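Q: Please design a sequence for this.
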């Protein structure tokens, strides 16, 4: 930014730019200010004082450096003719004596000096430790800091060293370095809040994310990258357990919509209605963001369950359906309306129904077969169709037996669902023999010793026996 300290051409300016706010720069600024000049005191650091502020004693009198400099710090900060410019660099100076133009680059401080009281509560909560360059790296400080206790301006500043490679690699730009630091401090509730600010699906991403952040982690150049995905899953599971044990402890959910609406005047709240086609991760994330801004959002889903491919494209043992539903319920709690079994055939009809905008996030639910011979054979099953059939046909309590000592696996019921699906298809002897082997050798293998079966287990076993006795085999 160009500092406006010049006037028209051929007119001398009664202002002085002093570059460097050490003891010499402060004394020069005070002398010029007392002479009636407007002084701009520029320094790269977040506070004035320079090198002398780092000294304990001064040569040759062995006096206390801060005792000598403190009165000048206070006087420089209070003088009406001195304007202090910190965290800035001088890029170039143009013009002639008496009429110069200075170009100054102002770096962000991330803290409003007019509002900061210098209490230090922010530094006490900050989870990021860094080496303190002011103390020659012999001590540590936080990412938000005040250069030294007597610093002028008496305000904190945040040091940001560019963009974290993990955040830059993440498609959602998740601030992984933030919640990883909070987990290190064992502040799991705060870590969950940080995740939910950028990502409404921490449980899902903690299980099925491809973790591009870990491939770009700088720690990987030393030994191994930080297990960012596993840490996210840990925090999500911690929140799940806390909510399950005691609902009163579940205070780490997303901020409710009422809190967001209270930040703005009711008359300024948007009245637009927005329709979102598809309840997958893109559609529900868009719904959450719009709901936080006060919009009236309606999600239209063609399936009987919400979640898109998260719900019907990933098996339950890989991504538990109850976790998906819990995070969808958190979004619906923001005031989002969800309409299931509602297929959208005409987008123009949505506008005719009163919606002001439509976000189309239908996803890609149609599978593709390999370009090989006999790919169109009736016995060739498309993977997405099979996964969707398993998710929608089999009831949730049939996907796994609640008895932890049972040897019947989830695969048993996936095979049973496949049998139910293939009843509608023409099939040959080879397929029938293969399915007979699967059911007889895997789906009905039970422990020999006597066990106590619960109601869900008996229901599942009865279903498999009906499959074995069907005409298919």
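A: Design:
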């Amino acid at each position: 930014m160009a500092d406006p300290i010049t006037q028209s051409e051929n007119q001398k300016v009664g202002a002085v730019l002093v570059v460097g706010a050490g003891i010499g720069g402060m004394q020069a600024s005070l002398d010029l200010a007392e002479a009636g000049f407007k002084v701009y005191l520029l320094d790269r650091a977040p506070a004035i004082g320079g090198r002398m502020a780092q000294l304990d004693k001064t040569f040759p009198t062995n006096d206390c450096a801060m005792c000598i400099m403190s009165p000048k710090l206070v006087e420089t900060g209070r003088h009406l003719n001195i304007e202090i410019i910190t965290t800035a660099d001088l890029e170039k100076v143009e013009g002639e004596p008496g009429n110069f133009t200075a170009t100054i680059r102002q770096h962000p401080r991330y803290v409003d000096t007019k509002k900061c009281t210098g209490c230090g509560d922010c530094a006490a909560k900050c989870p990021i430790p860094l080496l303190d360059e002011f103390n020659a790296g012999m001590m540590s400080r936080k990412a938000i800091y005040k250069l030294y206790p007597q610093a002028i301006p008496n305000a904190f500043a945040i040091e940001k060293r560019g963009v974290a490679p993990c955040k830059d690699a993440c498609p959602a730009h998740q601030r992984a370095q933030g919640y990883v630091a909070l987990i290190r401090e064992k502040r799991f509730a705060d870590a969950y809040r940080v995740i939910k600010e950028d990502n409404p699906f921490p449980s899902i991403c903690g299980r099925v994310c491809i973790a591009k952040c870990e491939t770009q982690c700088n720690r990987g150049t030393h030994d191994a990258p930080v297990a960012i995905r596993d840490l996210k899953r840990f925090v999500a599971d911690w929140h799940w357990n806390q909510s399950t044990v005691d609902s009163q402890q579940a205070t780490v959910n997303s901020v409710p919509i009422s809190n967001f609406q209270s930040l703005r005047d009711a008359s300024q709240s948007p009245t637009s209605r927005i329709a979102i086609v598809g309840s997958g991760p893109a559609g529900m994330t868009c719904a959450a963001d719009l709901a936080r801004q006060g919009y009236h959002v309606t999600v239209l889903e063609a399936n009987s369950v919400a979640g898109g491919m998260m719900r019907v494209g990933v098996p339950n043992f890989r991504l538990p359906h109850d976790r998906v539903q819990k995070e969808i319920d958190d979004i619906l709690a923001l005031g989002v309306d969800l309409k299931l079994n509602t297929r959208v055939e005409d987008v123009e009809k949505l506008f005719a129904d009163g919606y002001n905008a439509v976000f189309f996030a239908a996803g890609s639910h149609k599978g593709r077969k390999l370009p090989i011979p006999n790919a169109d054979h009736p016995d060739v099953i498309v993977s997405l169709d099979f996964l969707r059939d398993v998710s929608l046909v089999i009831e949730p309590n049939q996907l796994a037996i609640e008895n932890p000592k049972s040897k019947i696996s989830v695969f048993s019921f996936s095979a049973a669902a496949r049998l139910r699906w293939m009843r509608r298809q023409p099939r040959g002897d080879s397929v029938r023999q293969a399915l007979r082997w699967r059911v007889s050798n895997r789906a009905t293998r039970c422990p020999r010793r006597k066990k106590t079966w619960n109601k869900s287990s008996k229901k599942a076993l009865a279903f498999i026996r009906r499959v074995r006795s069907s005409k298919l085999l």
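Q: Thanks. Anything notable?
A: DSSP finds 18 helices and 15 strands in the chain. The chain has four domains: 1-161, 165-249, 269-360, 383-468.
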